[in-house]
Amino acid sequence: MVSTSMSKYKTSGYKGSCDYGKSDEREGRSCVRYKCGLLNTIQDVLRQRPNWVEVKDDGEWDFNWCDVGWLRENFGHTYMEEHVRINHFRNHYELTRKNLMVKNLKRYQKNLERDMGRVEASRCDFFPCTFALPSEYHLFVEEFNRSPGSTWIMKPVAKSQGKGIFLFRKLKDIMDWKKDGTRSEEQKDFAQVENYVAQRYIEKPYLINGRKFDLRVYVLVTSYVPLKAWLYRDGFARFSGTRFSLSSIDDKYMHLTNVSVQKTAPDYDPEKGCKWQMQQLRRYLTAKHGREMVETLFKEMDNIFVRSLQSVQKVIINDKHCFELYGYDILLDQNLKPWLIEVNASPSHTPSSQEDYEMKCRLLEDTLNVVDMEGRLTGKEKRVGGYDLMWNDGPVYREDVNLQTSGSLCFTANTHLGCVNDREKQLRRLLKPFPYQKKV
Ligand code: ADP
Description:
With 440 residues, the protein is an alpha+beta fold. The protein is built from 15 helices and 18 strands. Strands 9, 10, 11, 12, 13, 14, 15 and 16 form an 8-stranded antiparallel β-sheet that branches. It has a 4-stranded parallel β-sheet with strand order 2-1-3-4, with helices on one face. A hairpin with a 2-residue loop joins strand 9 and strand 10. Residues 128, 153, 155, 159-163, 165, 199, 201-202, 214, 256-258, 329, 331, 341-342 line the site of adenosine-5'-diphosphate.
């Protein structure tokens, strides 16, 4: 819970153009006062939302889409009334910083092994072997020496967009790099920051047209206790523009699939871009490997989302005012096994094309629909627009439970990543009109 003293953003008893009663928190509000710290797609979506009004500077707000910098500085001394919502949990970094994510996953896996046994713990084998440097340097060296010649990737824990990342195969490469003052500015940072992870490089990624890609998937958490998580149907694959090979480990355009990296490649074509929508990828994989294999792959991904959230469930400070839209980065290997690379607390909403813009608008509109400042939902929904409820203090199953030929019931997970996103039709059926629209 946040402190209720020093209330900088008090919302209590506000009367004005947005008139609603004190006791009436969710129903009957005629407008939502929002604050937005970002200047991109989210700003457009908030502006277009019927009867949402932007507040500037220190104005009182009901809804805040802030950046993590704002959160760090303000969360501790912001009073929030019951109905107020903000787009981050206070210590979101437990999942979204590379070293902490791995630390939490390792602990969770160890506890699972102790309580449930090896087989259950092996369900967490979805993150590449990782060490925090410099603190786990000796453990890392032991592991490194066990498989000579393999490739590792070094990543600064608190940077993003591929900054400061490099691949290596020899220990001397990081020794030299630690000491060598002649290296690039990026690499010199190590001596000062020292917080890196060394991670086993996925040497045999799944390739399409010879190119590596990773997946961006969106997961919305509306509560940690109990855990309530939604999976968005849309997402995309980000391709490298250069054919993959392990013979040149210094080529970032070949090995890093971040759009921010690919965009700077000399032969990058902004018209073609480097993305496939998730639906296109799912169709491609189904045509190539058959439905069953692809369903197994997507089930494995569900497992990654749920287990990674469970790994931080006891660590994240649960707060009913908070929700979080995570951007998961998943890499497939040549056996169609999904690997968790990273979870982002502020997935980029900057569009790379018109199609990308429209997808991000849908995603953000539906995020607002789930958060439901307008009080139009019952709270029992299993689907809201493009979001499917994936976990609600336990697995969520589809309504259409299949009766298998054996006669036993087959429960199917309520997730549809990469499936049709007929959100508008669904929303028309589901939602009451916006409160102000009733009056029109
Ligand atoms: P950042 O936060 O800087 O984007 P990531 O951990 O997401 O850092 O890594 C950037 C890119 O590097 C990923 O999108 C992926 O293409 C590649 N990458 C990262 N870790 C691995 C790994 N263990 N094996 C193979 N490729 C990786």
